[in-house]
Amino acid sequence: MYIWFFTQLTNLTFMDFFQLSSRIERSASPDFGDIFSRTFDLYKKVWWQGFLMIACVFIIMIPFMVVVMLPMAGLSAFAEASEVGDAIEPIAIFSTLSWAFLAGLAMVIFMSFITYALIAGFLRVCKNADYYGNADTSDLFYYCKARYFGKTFVLGLAAAGISLIALMMCILPAYYVAVPINLFLVIFAFNPELSVSEIIKISFKLGNKYWILIFGLTLVLGMIASLGALACGIGIFFTACLQVIPLYYIYKDAVGFDEEKLVVEKF
């Protein structure tokens, strides 16, 4: 009985993967102007959650930065002292650098999880605001749970690894993989049951089919979002989410959502 249940569960995961692939293959090309205008319409409903997303990442980053920088500041003070005759012990240098490295690594791991989880949660906010008209702030933290830690962390590592390999091959491949990498989170947000490899495959499939459209939307809306920095830098907290919203519409138009699941989620 347990073997049968495990087999059915595995088949369900693969059915979801093949269903997504099939939908992408059969989808019609989304319209640039339509997605552009709908992005600003939805932004009016979710701007507050977008602000909270960026603010949370920034606030959580501060203590980690302090933990990393304090030992380095102490080492700098020792270096100044050595100029007036006091020698720095090699063990102190080694300990400080080791601490900075470990703390920095921990910061990267944790911030990768928090950033990916919050962006995925924001995409969930976008879907609910689009379908039901209300943006629930609690959805922003939906993926900030222990059971999603491993998957978001591995997705972050995969994105970093693919980007690094693309950069080593030259600049153009880096531009190419940037589009599928941007889709990792939207695929994960609406299909968290998929494996990391399946998420990556679906992202590249969708990204390859609509690469020019996605790149154009990301570039144009990224430039518009960056204008928020003109407001003493604080405005970027309110406009940065503009780069995320079109990814939701790309997914909605190319893949779509099951109506039965939407009814269940509503209630």
From TrEMBL:
Parts of the chain that traverse the membrane: 46-79, 99-123, 153-175, 212-238
Keyword Transmembrane among record annotations: yes
Keywords carried by this UniProt record: Membrane, Transmembrane, Transmembrane helix
Top-level taxon in the UniProt lineage: Bacteria
Protein name: Glycerophosphoryl diester phosphodiesterase membrane domain-containing protein
